[in-house]
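Objective 1b: paired records.
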Amino acid sequence: MAEQNQKKRVAGDRLRTFIAAAFEAVAVPNADAHTIAQLMTQADINGSEGHGVFRLPQYIRRIKGGAVNVKPNIRIERELAGMALVHGDNGMGHLVMKLAAEKAIEKAKTAGVAWVGARWSNHAGPAALYAMMPAQHNMIGLYMAVGSANHLPPWGGLDMLLSTNPIAVAVPAGEEPAVILDMATTVAAYGKVKTKAQRGEMMPEGWMMDRDGKPLTDPKRANEGFLLPIGGYKGYGLALVLGLLAGNLNGAAMGKDVIDFNNDDTSETNTGHAIVAINIEAFQDIKEFKQGMDTLIRDIRDSKRLPGVDRIRLPGEGTHTTRVDNEKNGIPMPPALLAALDQLAGELKIEKLSR
């Protein structure tokens, strides 16, 4: 709680400028640097604190290490009426997935539903960032990816063959905020473990287990154990299937071929993603759909509660509340993160964020 009170608020425009300057300092072209900065800042505005500017030092290290192509030829490799396969040419994942989402939206306007896969990409930030793109065009967005490091063994095993493999779904409503589900297939995303470690905080029991089957709560000892799947063996199954759809189907890395980008600054990851856009108007009148969504949302929110429950929430409510607050008051920056970003600024010879 003390750290919460010490957090400095940084305006979105200021953060975008800082991030763009950092990427330009390592030879990312101006237009691409600003695109990445916009998406990373939006992640922080939405409250995805483990996938926004927190990742900047890591991204810069990998670029400096030659692991990421700063001038990629991102292109459509295969294409039919309702699908496409994007070759990311080892570019920043944000650039790859922005193009993939735009292609899915474009195709869904005529095909009704469009599935776009991507390979030879990199970490792209939070899943909801891309699921929300079709939702802004009166479409349902569905995103899945192979995580950028393996922290999950098969159920009952010890070998790290799976990642957190996230899934996000965004469904637009009318007067109510969109319903947005964004979740890892593990109890906690590894980004949350990393933020806990940076802040010197302990993890709750249930996030990780050591190789003896005992709870692991010290994030600085994360390499001694593994993340736990949601719902036991069901979460393991979900992680596997999402990896097949975002990885194997696209010819991207999966299983033992996944590179741990947290500890490897020189290897290409061949990260796989998939984005699906579903054009609601292909199924029914958009106005009627949104009215129905509003009714359902209110029915769920106003339904009877268990004793001691103050409110029934829907997926995406917290994101909406956080986004409104951060847009108005600025994005909270924990002291440890701000210090790390100032150190990075010094190395890159750009203006510090704390000034």
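Objective 1b, second protein:
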Amino acid sequence: MIRYIVRRLLLSIPVLLGIVLLVFVLARVIPGDPCTATYGEKATPEICAAFEARYGLDKPIMEQFVIYLGALVQGDLGSSIRFGRPVAALLVERLPVTLELTVLALLFASVVGISLGLLSAVRRNSPVDVGTMVVANVGVSMPVFVLGLFLAFVFAVLLRGTPFALPPSGRLTPGVDVQSLVEVWGLPDLQGPPRLVLDFISNMYLPTTLVTGQWSAFLDALTHLILPAVAVGTIPLAIIARMTRSSLLEVLGLDYIRTGRAKGLRERAVVLRHAMRNALLPVVTVIGLSLGAFLSGAVLTETIFNLTGVGRTLFDAIEGRDYIVVQGVTVVVAVGYLVVNLLVDVSYAKLDPRIRLD
């Protein structure tokens, strides 16, 4: 197992380099330039020449790439042209928002999707099966921005003043504050990487308020994330439900399932203990790949629900031709993809004892 993990990590290095190079080149060949995006009509040739010299954009593109790669190896993601701040500081501030949204959406899509797929497979061709698959097809077909606006209209306008009303935007209700871990634990003088780690965790309001016992703030932050999580998680939910149904139906037709039933095992034990474990192999793959749907859908979702996360930051950076932010966010997302794919592969050996990664 250890040899497999080390081998995968080594093979991930050229993949990561290829992604960085591709994004680096594409960011510079698209129409527009940072100087014009920053200064607009005031972007004279003299101002743009000084601007490009300040940020090193006047050098050949491969020389820029080598300089950026050298800084990246040292852990420096550069400084944003648009925001005037280090990209690492932006990620510490805004990545936790997207992570919270992604985790909630992943839990929603996985739990509900697997449950619907299991119910649909057990009651094949019944009205429950047909209704579940109709809902799944509708979920796949509905764009994120349409569903997000619809949910905001229903729960914030139509159900306003009822116990079912939910906030349509923002992370917290005005007046509600979350104390950071640095404040709660009395560490105002803490600096360096430990401070960055604590600030990163503190910007994830749900675990911070849960650990520190800020229950009112926890409930407020949770209610603000329900609608965005449902909006971004509906399409992966529908895919997971359909995949669970088809995979479980295939497994239920195998010989060892019929043998278990012939031995007198209860149907619940046959389905949950024996069939479901093997049926989850392709489902786990789909869940891992759904991370891309969460991150890509977060761009629209964060805009609709006024959440300042990585998705919205990336959109602003692309619009402003802020190459440094685009590259930094891409590196972090690519590393996340590689880690998730590795975890999915390792989970195969846990779900199916016949698989040996070594």
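The CA atoms of residues 65 and 250 lie 49 Å apart. The two ends are 6 Å apart (CA to CA).
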